[in-house]
TrEMBL record:
Residues 145-337 form the PPM-type phosphatase domain. The lineage of its organism: Bacteria, Bacillati, Actinomycetota, Actinomycetes, Propionibacteriales. InterPro entries: HATPase_C_sf (IPR036890), HATPase_dom (IPR003594), PPM-type-like_dom_sf (IPR036457), PPM-type_phosphatase-like_dom (IPR001932), Ptase_RsbX (IPR039248). Signal peptide: none annotated. Pfam families: HATPase_c_2 (PF13581), SpoIIE (PF07228). SMART domains: PP2C_SIG. The keyword Protein biosynthesis does not apply. This is Anti-sigma regulatory factor (Ser/Thr protein kinase). SUPFAM superfamilies: ATPase domain of HSP90 chaperone/DNA topoisomerase II/histidine kinase, PP2C-like. The keyword Transferase applies. Keywords: Kinase, Transferase. GO terms for molecular function: kinase activity. PANTHER family: PHOSPHOSERINE PHOSPHATASE RSBX.
Length: 339
């Protein structure tokens, strides 16, 4: 599963199911290996392993099982690793207090979430009764604690080793370009199409969403094709320009102007309509969410973590957990609008 940051460097997401205690040790080893590959110092690798062990243990004991996602952070976000722990367990209203004083939801003393907070440069967590828990820990190489500008999560179809979706973003003068590409079907051939679209997205000098979709159409002519959405977000002017073809979604969450931006019918690479751009105004602290059809469109912003109090990664992880289907590849990209 791959995404690319603003430099065009591709990063892998590692999904680890954690449904029993025996899975904790495996998650710890995978995290240590990934941290070492990311160039972290030996003592920092040890801290990564502790954080992953604590989060995996909490997922099993208090969440009834769930997933860990390990992501290499680009240098622009401090390098190192981001760890996302997601479960659909009973949840709690007191997660922040537990992280502060070492209590556990089982009523026993513990240091799990407290240790995660102490060892991580940044922690964002959300939980609610009957809604489960999401914890995002950033273990950066340089100690920076800022929230990544754009949250990107992808999950392959169950049983597949590659994801047919690709997501990415790049910074330009006057804003940020976002893309979600969903290769038709799943598996390596779908991944080939979406990866080719991502290559075009990063190589092109154009910043017009419609023009980028047209360029991708030409490049994908020998592939399965893809559904693609591209957005240009200008936080300073509070504007967004959207162009989409196929079954991909763009939603604006929060603020006074929450809305859904539809894509045009067609297949990029095979059957391209006359691509149209849709400009819209944005509100401060609004969240721009793009996702593939691996997530149902029947989700409500009211069911998400409060977007004004949590980072984009927490919101994206909760959305993927609740709206994602295991019958298809799934991807979510989210960006908060702030000057």
């Amino acid at each position: 599963m791959t995404s690319a940051d603003g430099s065009g460097v591709v990063h892998d997401d590692v999904w680890i199911p954690v449904d029993e205690t025996a899975a904790v040790a495996g998650a710890r080893r995978r995290a240590g290996a990934l941290a070492t590959a990311a160039g972290l110092a030996a003592d920092r690798v040890g801290e990564v392993e502790i954080v992953v062990s604590e989060l995996a243990t909490n997922v099993v004991k208090h969440g009834g099982g769930g997933d860990l996602v390990l992501r290499r952070l680009p240098e622009t976000d401090g390098g190192g690793l981001q760890v996302v722990a997601v479960d659909a367990g009973p949840g709690t209203r007191h997660l922040e207090a537990m992280a502060g004083d070492g209590r556990s939801s089982a009523g026993t003393l513990g240091v799990g979430l407290g240790a995660v907070r102490r060892l991580s440069a940044r922690v964002d967590m959300w939980s609610a009764p009957t809604r489960g828990t999401v914890v995002v820990a950033g273990l950066t190489a340089d100690g920076s604690d800022h929230e990544p500008l754009v949250a990107e999560l992808r999950r392959p179809l169950r049983g597949e080793t590659v994801c047919g979706d690709a997501v990415g973003h790049r910074e330009i003068d006057g804003g940020t370009l976002l893309v979600v590409a969903d290769g038709l079907g799943h598996g390596p051939l779908a991944a080939q199409a979406s990866s080719r679209a991502l290559e075009v997205f990063h190589a092109a000098s154009s910043t017009s969403p419609a023009d980028l979709v047209r360029r991708m159409h030409q490049a994908l002519s020998g592939t399965r094709g893809a559904a693609i959405a591209v957005c240009l977000v200008d936080p300073a002017r509070r504007t967004l320009v959207h162009a989409g073809v196929g079954n991909v979604s763009c939603r604006l969450v929060g603020g006074r102007r929450a809305r859904w931006l539809p894509s045009q019918p067609g297949i990029v690479g095979h059957n391209l309509p006359r691509v149209q751009e849709q400009p819209v105004d944005l509100d401060d602290s609004q969240l721009v969410v793009l996702h593939s059809d691996g997530l149902t469109e029947k989700w409500s912003p009211e069911d998400l973590p409060p977007v004004t109090r949590h980072g984009a990664t927490v919101v994206a992880a909760a959305l993927l957990r609740d709206a994602g289907t295991r019958r298809d590849d799934a991807s979510v990209l989210a960006m908060r609008v702030s000057a």
